[in-house]
Design goal:
This protein is an all-alpha fold. The protein is built from 17 helices and no strands. The longest helix has about 40 residues.
Length: about 475
């Protein structure tokens, strides 16, 4: 009996029709809602992870170590984000132009490139973890914990890279449900293993922060297996066969990807520098500020995760519509996505003003950290709509293949403005951690305004990929 289920090509054509011809608000929501659920699940995991670490012996050092280790790992993430930018732009534009073979080749070459990049970055990161976390600002008891956390996770670099690229391939086709299913499975595995390994079970000795790292590595393998399976079943399934390097395609991917990688490296350097300056605070304030920053950032993710989801939606919306010869629709779609994200993020941010103590209390048994976390949430609350503009329009520009100007805006605002401002407020003017929070909030507003101005007046519509 013949099956009535649609073929992968039919599913891809249906998604492209929605993106390029459907009602714009419906198209934005079609792409955004699964990603929004996925990012909220990821946020839930980060919150649970911080809660677990907040209740182990030497919790303050463990929380600080997870924040510093996470920043060390972001140097690697910067590269994979760049590769995924090149993948997304080329795959979505090729599909919009109805060039399935080109889209398949872009996906194939991106996957091969991801393996090499994972090896080249993962091994040095694992071997040099102690030096890197020390440079970021780890002190005393935080150093061995941050080193172990970073090194263990680094050995699972190939699964991370392949999962990220495979996810970009799926989303560029308009398939946002498969990454959602994969994300749910990964987070479920990660949370379960976190609980078992951090606190110990059935005779297994509690591993603390090392258990959190092992859980992350195992969940990365699960994510890679699932996303590659979904790619195999998609219209671009041939990307997983006939692997042969094509230097011309690699050059095209890297031409788009390197500015995006540079942008993310700038963000990582800024985050590491931010922690480093917090580490300069006197009279025992440093570790408390670093631990509070780690917790507060996990809480703030409640607000900015919708921005990530809408940014992911904006990339295929702009890329496929430009490929289909509909630039005005691409522009309109991006503004609709940015507006929806700004409204949602602003609404969530009101909780940071109204009930910050209730949000902060579950994360730590140390009452001294709560007011520092509360100050972070309140000071950063009003910048969330501007952060939405920055994130979503940056994703839209990525779909167009414009990664250079967003990289310049990000690098200038975070490295040239945020860090000097943080030092001025927190150290020179002796405002402490709240001064650092003000520097962050003000530069978020500035970057959002600059990104909106470039999207409105820039020449990104004419970029060829």
């Amino acid at each position: 009996m013949r099956s009535n289920s649609p073929t992968p090509l039919q599913r891809r054509n249906e998604a492209t029709a929605i993106i390029t011809s459907g009602h714009i608000w419906s198209a934005v929501w079609y792409l955004a809602w699964p990603s929004a659920i996925n990012t909220f699940i990821m946020t839930f995991y980060n919150i649970v992870n911080r809660i677990f670490l907040g209740h182990v012996p030497n919790a303050e050092a463990s929380l600080a170590a997870s924040g510093i280790g996470g920043n060390a790992l972001m140097f690697q993430m910067a590269l994979v984000f760049g590769l995924s930018a090149g993948t997304s732009a080329l795959v979505s534009r090729s599909l919009g132009e109805d060039r399935l073979e080109d889209a398949t080749q872009a996906a194939r070459q991106s996957l091969m490139l991801s393996i090499g990049a994972a090896i080249l970055t993962g091994v040095p990161l694992a071997l040099c973890a102690r030096y890197l976390v020390g440079a970021i600002g780890a002190r005393d008891a935080v150093v061995p914990l941050a080193t172990a956390y970073t090194a263990i996770i680094s050995w699972a670099s190939i699964p991370l890279f392949m999962n990220m690229i495979a996810t970009s391939i799926l989303r560029s086709q308009g398939d946002v449900l498969s990454p959602l299913y994969s994300g749910i499975a990964v987070i479920a595995v990660n949370v379960l293993l976190d609980w078992l390994l951090i606190f110990g079970f059935a005779g297994v000795h509690p591993m603390g922060i090392r258990g959190a790292a092992v859980a992350t590595g195992i969940s990365r393998v699960v994510g890679m297996a699932l996303t590659l399976l979904f790619v195999r079943r998609s219209a671009l399934g041939a990307a997983l066969s006939h692997w042969r390097l094509d230097l011309s395609w690699l050059a095209r991917i890297l031409r788009i990807g390197w500015p995006a990688s540079g942008q993310n490296i700038a963000m990582t350097l800024a985050s590491a520098g931010f922690l480093r300056i917090l580490g300069m605070l006197p009279n025992g304030q440093a570790t408390a500020a670093q631990a509070s920053y780690t917790v507060a950032l996990a809480l703030e993710a409640l607000a900015f995760q919708p921005g990530i989801a809408y940014s992911m939606a904006a990339t295929p919306l702009v890329g496929q519509n430009l490929g289909a010869g509909k630039p005005e629709r691409a522009v309109h779609s991006a503004w609709v996505a940015a507006g929806q994200a700004a409204a949602i993020m602003g609404l969530i941010a009101t909780l940071f003003v109204l009930i910050p103590r209730y949000l902060a209390a579950p994360f730590t048994a140390d009452a001294a950290l709560v007011p520092i976390i509360v100050a972070y949430l309140r000071i950063n609350s009003f910048s969330e709509p501007f952060l939405a503009l920055n994130m979503v329009l940056r994703g839209a520009l990525q779909g167009a293949g414009d990664t250079r100007i967003p990289a310049l805006i990000t690098g200038a605002s975070m490295l040239l403005v945020r860090l000097p401002l943080e030092w001025l407020f927190a150290i020179h003017l002796q405002m402490g951690a709240p001064g650092a929070w003000w520097a962050m909030s003000l530069t978020c507003c500035m970057a959002g305004i600059l990104m909106a101005l470039w999207f409105r007046f820039g020449n990104w519509r004419n970029i060829r990929v």
